[in-house]
Amino acid sequence: MGEWAIATQGLTRRFEAFTAVDEVSLQVAPGQFFGFLGPNGAGKSTTIKMLTGLLAPTSGSMEILGLDFQAHPVEVKRQIGVVPEGMALFGRLTGAEYLNFVGRMYGLDRLTAAQRAGELLEFMQLAEAGRKLVTDYSHGMQKKLALAAAVIHGPRVLFLDEPFEGVDAVAAVTLKNMLQNMIARGATIFLTSHVLEIVERLCSHVAIIHKGKLVAQGSLEELRAGVEAEAAAGEKLTLEQIFLRIVGTEGGTRPELSWLA
Amino acid sequence: MAGVERTALSTRVQLRAIAQVRWQLLVNSLRTVTGTLEAISRVISGLVFTLLGFGGAVGFAVGGWWALGQGHAAVLGALLWGLFVFWQVFPLASSTFSEQVDVSHLARFPLSFRAYCLVRVAFGAVDVATLVGGLCCLGLAIGLLVARPELAGWIVVGVTLYAAFNLLLSQMIFAWLERWLARRKTRELLTVLFFVVIVAVQFIGPAVNYMDHHRAAASATASQAMAWLHFADWLPPSLPLRALTFAGGGAWGMALAAVAALAVWSVVVLRLLNLRLVREYRGEVWSESAAPTRRRKTASAEVTARPRWWDRLPGWGGAAGTIAEKELRYLLRSPAMYFALAMPVVLMLILQAQGLGGGHRHGLALSGFGFPVGVAYTLLALTNLSFNQFGNDGVGAQLYFVAPVAFRTVLRGKNLALGTLIALEIVVVFIAAALVDRPPALALAAATVVGMAFASLCTFAAGNMISLTFPRKVDFSRMGKQGLRGVGSMVALAVEGGAVAIAGLAAVAGILLHRPWLGVGLELVLTAAAIVVYQYLLGPAEQLAGRQRETLLAELSKA
Q1: Which of A24, B45, B248, B495 has the fewest CB atoms lying closer than 10 Å?
Q2: Do the Cβ atoms of B302 and A118 come within 8 Å?
């Protein structure tokens, strides 16, 4: 599959009779900020779980930085950082203890892990939480901590499942800056979000999954050009409009719920 | 709400919908092998407890008939108090066998308060204590009716009120306990209080023995106890007896007063339960995120940066050591763990204080066996943790699958933490045994330590598999969700019992042949075999983790 940061070939995941992800073949180049979009239940989280080792694919192959995930799981995991759906936090550790633990799980020595943990806590404005246990953090604080843990080992590929959900506007700006700096330094970011404005602002490339199948993939300009050909001449489409044209209008106009006040 | 008919909100419709959804949940749980096995284990334990309940009912029927017929009021009193203690204490101690259905989420539906209370009490009543207690009450009523049919009215009213009181009281205790358990600080305080009470109860026996030897002190205490017993006549478990005694003697007024007193007690308990239910119904949510903590900026990151001496210990340097360190932090943040660590020593103190043994007038004392007794208790208290190793991790367990660490390392790290704790506890128990009892004979000490090593390795090997096959999220804020249950707990019990029996047989063989070191030798061979089996099973356990990760993470991610 070549020099891609992330590449899948015929990636499929079935849950008994239901196919959640169906023959998905996508490619993400190194250094890309890649947005992975789709309606609820389209297969986004299932795909990201397979790409990060939380779920086994039924068939197909995955390569991260040229390494086959199934053949070299540990080597691949060393190169990637993840904020999974459940955030993977340990409630009865403090923020510092958790970051130290994660750092050392990724092979950092005790000193480096502690130094980076301290810096990340300061950066994420969590240092004041001090001896507070993670279980006592607010949702937004937990999200920031999960992001800090995902980057503590300096991953070359970062997977983020709804990273801005529950994060306040000030923290969101900080996080966006951090992610853009990572891109500038050559990292690859694979992000799912329901907030299309964020994806449009951050991502250079996008893929759209619908009912388990990949229905569009390319740069924003390529997607826009493809859809605009069908739209009225001269109309500049937003990502939301592109998204809706690809997946949102299927089945025609929805009947009105007349009983709803 | 335009167009919604009021009839659509009828309580009956809602109750039927709730019953249907519970049934559907049960049916859906059978879709997985784990769910089916859990259901089978529930059916088996349900049958066992139903049989126990029927046995109890027969016993209470015979006991009640004999006590009332022959005029042995004290026996009837003992039956009533015994059942009361069982009904209230068993649910607290039996989280392995029973699980309270959480109905607090129903508060978001347009359910009337009456319906909410009904559902809450009805689901709360589906437990072992209510089943056994209800059957025993039925048996008792039948026995009493046969003995004195002329008191039928008093018997029916008295026993029914007694059963209702017990049911409401157990519900009330659970409701308030869950309120306190919902916050970490109060939960920890409550845990400490609970353990202090448990430990204190253990010293009743030795105290009675002491009184037996010190007549003067005993006499004073006895008169205090008698005064208390007089007061206890008006406590709920005594009131049915008082009602029947007065009614039997023709003192209708006093009998009515006893029944009324029982009704008043029931109303008081109902009011206290109502107080909780009203708040639950209004949407009170006690989240841990609300727990206040001091804002204190610390340099904890820098503190942990210092090299630690244990990094140089075998097995502690790599990822397994990192996991073991995290596990120990986790375990030692639980007050229950300190209780588990303290109990073997407390047990030795109790046994020694009871003077059950040699040299003493009444008994054996520990007679040099304090160390094996303490270690055996340690095995029971600590190795149980290895059968649900991910229960405390919750969603954090996802990290074990995304981190660049082989899963066998994760298991080894968790086993290392528990093994270290067990080793430290053995040292503490040895010192305590030497002080409380006397230092054990060298061969006995060696047999105990090696036997414990064998048993621990067996439980770790089996525990790794059980933890992955029957994971169960631990929720310290919910009664009945704080540990392993169902098939997992049965297998855990079998493995622990089997390992102890095998090690014990080896030691006993040495003793019978008058060559205690032979027993130690046999145990060493067994331990060496256990090491090989343990190491071998890490491979299959890793494969199992791969197959089970979805089930494991789904269970641990449950809200």
Answers
A1: B248
A2: yes
